[in-house]
Sequence to fold (461 residues):
Amino acid sequence: MNGWRSIAWNGLWKQNTALIQLLGMCPLLAMSNSVVNGLGLGLATVLVMALSNLTVSALRSLIPYEIRIPVFILIIAALVTIVDLAMNAFLHDLYLVLGIFIPLIVTNCIVLARVEAFAAKNPVLASAVDGAAMALGLTWVLALLGAIRELVGTGALFAGIEMIVPAAHAIQILSPDYPGFLIAILPPGAFIALGLLIAGRNWLDARANRRLRLQREHDRGAAATSVPA
Amino acid sequence: MSETTGNFDPVAPREAGALRISLRTAAIMLAFTVVFTALMAGIYGVTAPLVAASAEKEKLALIGEVLPSALYDNALLDDWIEVPPLRDLGLTDATRLYRARKNGGPAGLVFEAAAADGYSGRIGLLLAVQASGDLLAVRVTGHRETPGLGDYIEPKKDKNKARPWITQFDKLSLAAVTPERWRVKKDGGRFDQRAGATISARAVTGASGRALAWATNNRERLFAAPSGRKFE
Fold:
């Protein structure tokens, strides 16, 4: 696998923020009560992580090792503030939807983790791609978690989409008489649904590993039996 | 620090080194702080007027939900008085009350109130009361009621889109509905509540009734008070 593909694969699956590294749980659990909320927070994080990785990587030769953490935090906080202000001024309609999520990104430790683990040691473009890939990995889990909780909790999907796409509206999936299952939308539902997702991922990984092992044993067995005469 | 003294002191060079390193590191930290603070200040300076303009537009849009613009012809946001945090309104901070006028005569009052007895924290309300004492409309501006249960007090979350719960207060006055009847049905009043979430409905009903009574009783003084000043 070449470098770019492995960066993308790490972010989206192998080192997935939400399912493997389990970093940034606070915004993940708090904002995943609907698909639209999950996507909104995820996309805002993509922007901030790409920018913070890019900036730190570009400035990495100027940052003394001893004070790198305070400088990283300063850069991340400044970038989040700038994105917040700029969106409020120039993309006001989108800001009304995403605005509440943006300050939350500062509290997401995955931003600092990628800056420290990747951007401080790698070239600018690779760092920006790594930031975006890590955040996209977070985004799809957030959206899936939001979808599960919203569907189980209310029986519909995409509530609030009209704030982003005015023509669109929520889709009723289950029967309109579905009474709703409140716990899915409340915080405990976030823990339960995330636990199930992590279990599902572990199961997929275990199955893939078992297949690989069987394949190897089979190959070895085949090699042992077919001794050249 | 001078090397010409000739005294051999093994500690001095290391201390000087530590001092130099900390000064240098602090200078770098300071430089980063200054650069990024300047960047933020610059962006703030550029965006502040745009942000203020859209905040004003938003406020007018929210006011437009309770007070139709056909009912007044003055510059609503310029005709205000400051209301202290009154118990009748349930507020903890001073807020602005806007006065709508038509042809110079009093038309309506737009002001904020809050219910402290919601299920989860305060429920912010915006009310428009006509000069006649009729409540034009009330809207929830902020709340943390349980999603899917108590949040029907906000029309956007209300499943009844044709006639959201909160619109049953429209066009009512305390002359038409006595304070004893200004309650949810469960408490012997005239307003519906949804099963399983009476607390949210009771809080909004109580707070809007108290705020309407305050505005009705004080309306003459509220319209007469000089603009841009505190209301005593």
About this structure: Chain B touches chain A through 20 residues (CB under 8 Å). The first helix of chain B runs from residue 11 to 66. The longest strand of chain B covers residues 105-115. The two ends of chain B are 69 Å apart (CA to CA).
